[in-house]
Amino acid sequence: MKKISLVALVLSFIVGQTVFAATASQDVLSSSTSPTMSDKAPGCGCGVRMKEMMSSLNLDATQQSKIKAIKDQLKQSQKANWEQMKSIRSQIHELVTADTLDKSKLDSLIDKKKELLGQMMKAKITAKQEIYSVLNTNQKTQFKQMMKQWEEKRMNHQC
After folding, report:
1. Residue 71, Cβ neighbours under 10 Å: how many?
2. What pLDDT, in 10s, does the model give residues 73-112?
3. Which CDD domains does this UniProt record tie to the protein (predicted)?
4. End-to-end CA distance of the chain, in Å?
5. Domain segments of the chain: what residues?
6. Cβ proximity of 26 and 70 under 8 Å
7. I need a surface site. Which of 12, 62, 87, 128 has the fewest CB within 10 A?
8. How far apart are CA 10 and CA 30, in angstroms?
9. Please, what is the average pLDDT of the chain?
């Protein structure tokens, strides 16, 4: 049981970092120019992928406003989820630094974190699909290619 709990905790941290890295890419569309190094998120620059993709799709003004609304809505919902995630992380930290491990509380926190991560993933996927539905046929083809490239890069990503 200890091993299962430990594995679940480690996986929870790994998934949490992945979700954090993924949600960092939710930058708001601010211009149609290519981003510079100063526009990128700290570290490897994961935070500009969506912005790069949107600028390379040559969106018209209507598409840009619809996509901005979708992204703003996602940002608001994810903000609330991140506050809950912070609380869970601090509670897990308290468990780690306690003299004895409260296994039932750990299991409860892991369950809460899994549920929250599921909600966050669902919201991101829904937003991507809504963005996809705004695109024309050529843009959809280009979007699919970019998503495939992202996935390939993500498989080799180390941050």
Report:
1. 20
2. 999 989 989 999 999 999 999 999 999 999 999 999 999 9
3. CpxP_like
4. 30
5. 2-155
6. no
7. 62
8. 37
9. 78
